[in-house]
Specification:
The complex is a heterodimer.
Chain A: E1 5-9, H1 14-26, E2 31-34, H2 43-48, E3 57-60, E4 63-66, H3 68-78, H4 89-115, H5 118-139, H6 152-156, H7 158-171, H8 183-194, H9 196-199, H10 205-221
Chain B: E1 5-9, H1 14-25, E2 31-34, H2 42-47, E3 56-59, E4 62-65, H3 67-77, H4 89-115, H5 118-139, H6 152-171, H7 175-178, H8 180-190, H9 193-196, H10 202-215
Parallel strand pairs in B: 1-2
Antiparallel strand pairs in B: 1-3, 3-4
Classes of the chains: A alpha+beta, B alpha+beta.
Chain lengths: 223, 219
């Protein structure tokens, strides 16, 4: 049976790239459709994600699925091959717990710290660092959060694995993720980006850096 | 090995209610421990050191945190009885999507209804009704979100029904007027013993909300 898999995504979105990484781990071929999320949303996006109107959306034989983590669990259940989640229900629950921690605590705290005004920065950075410290503890001596191979938590933390260091370069602030502050988490980011399947799923470094430098300049200009 | 199941909970918590419903649907015996959130037990702090929140499900001494993660865990471990999550991957994804929608919208917006006034409250009421209408759309003509039986989305959403009366009193509006189908669905679910014994009385929840408003100085 011919399988049609499409991804509506955005080149710079870590959420969109999570889905692409999961598909590559499973060795699934797919058609990528770029969405301009800053301009007008396409009729396709509005049709397939009417509730949130966001990327990523996975289309499998014409049927849409939205929300990156929901999509990844679907990918895990639909295509065999390299597992993304553990089989044991308790280990699975732990992976979901840490994934939720990344999504609901780490990422918002990091984003606030990156863009916070000077007078609120210290507090925002402190909060974000607390999250990173807690997340670091989940590594617990392993090479990846998923153990020997990249798993759900690693995929969910792709923003921390790749985007964050580039953003720090763009802003000139290196006080969130550093080798001094979080040695094992920092080492994980190196392991993560050197993984061949991850490399294939990342946006071009220079393009992402230029993008964030432009946003920093915009933010400074409006002060 | 003992199946020992313990639930650390707080009676008005909609998140705790989700787990109670799931455990009841599966017919699982468990020990219920009521937590005083102003004086959290050592067990709670030990079992959920990161968030220090209820509910915490402890199975064979190991803690599982976060209500939807707990419901999925319960469904996976006790998979032989009353499945909550569909077996088809696409339907599973759909169920997860809508449970995530409930998580993202209902609790936060509902909280705004009883903690704010004026324009902010009006906006929250509008968004709340819009969200419920989207859920009604998903329910369609089915008796339950899960089809013929209670499913994952039913379990995710039902607890908030026990808070509807409090939202209505604080927001001065009637949910049934705008979303009759959803209220009919909730009443249908309450016919089930697993649901009826897991949800507190709406008036009791309203009384609790009034206490909170007083304690936090919210008018």
């Amino acid at each position: 049976m011919s399988e049609e898999v499409k991804v509506l995504g955005n080149w710079g979105s870590c959420f969109s790239r999570r889905v692409e990484l999961a598909l590559k781990i499973k060795g699934v071929e797919y058609e990528y459709i770029e969405e301009d999320v800053y301009g007008n949303k396409s009729p396709l996006l509005l049709k397939y994600n009417p509730v949130h109107k966001k990327v990523p959306v996975l289309l499998h034989n014409g049927k849409p699925i939205a929300e990156s983590l929901v999509i990844i669990e679907y990918i895990e259940e639909t295509w065999k091959g390299t597992p993304i989640l553990p089989e044991d229900p308790y280990e699975k629950a732990m992976a979901r717990f840490w994934t939720k921690f990344v999504d609901e605590k780490c990422l918002p705290a990091l984003w606030r710290a990156v863009w916070s005004p000077e007078n609120e920065r210290e507090k925002a950075v402190e909060e974000a660092c607390k999250c990173l410290e807690t997340l670091q503890s989940a590594l617990n001596g392993k090479r990846f959060f998923g153990g020997d191979t990249v798993g759900l938590v690693d995929i969910a933390a792709n923003f921390i694995g790749f985007w964050l260091r580039i953003i720090q370069e763009a802003t000139g602030h290196g006080d969130l993720l550093s080798a001094e502050k979080f040695p094992t988490l920092f080492k994980w980011t190196d392991e993560f980006v050197s993984c061949s399947v991850v490399k294939q799923s990342l946006p071009p470094r220079d393009k992402l850096l230029a993008f964030f430098k432009a946003r920093v300049a915009e933010a400074n200009a409006s002060k | 090995m003992s199946e020992e199941v313990v639930l650390l909970d707080f009676w008005p918590s909609p998140f705790g209610m989700r787990v109670r419903i799931a455990l009841a649907e599966k017919g699982i015996q468990y020990e219920y421990q009521e937590e005083d959130l102003r004086n959290k037990s050592d067990l709670l702090l030990k079992m959920n050191p990161i968030h220090k929140k209820i509910p915490v499900l402890i199975h064979r001494g190991k803690p599982v945190c976060e209500s939807l993660i707990q419901v999925q865990y319960i469904d996976e471990v006790w998979h032989d009885k009353s499945p909550l999550i569909p077996s088809d991957p696409y339907q599973r994804a759909n169920a997860r999507f809508w449970a995530d929608f409930v998580d993202k919208k209902i609790y936060e917006i509902g909280t705004k209804i009883w903690t704010t006034k004026g324009e902010e409250q009006a906006a929250a009421k509008k968004e709340f009704i819009e969200s419920l209408k989207l859920l009604e759309g998903e329910l369609g003509d089915k008796p339950y979100f899960g089809g013929d039986n209670l499913g994952y989305v039913d379990v995710a959403l039902l607890p908030f029904y026990s808070w509807f009366y409090a939202y209505e009193k604080c927001g001065n509006f009637t949910i049934e007027e705008e979303c009759p189908k959803l209220i009919a669905w909730a009443k249908r679910c309450l016919q089930k013993e697993s649901v009826a014994k897991s949800l507190p009385d709406q008036e009791k929840v309203y009384g609790f909300v009034l206490q909170l408003k007083k304690a936090f100085g919210i008018e």
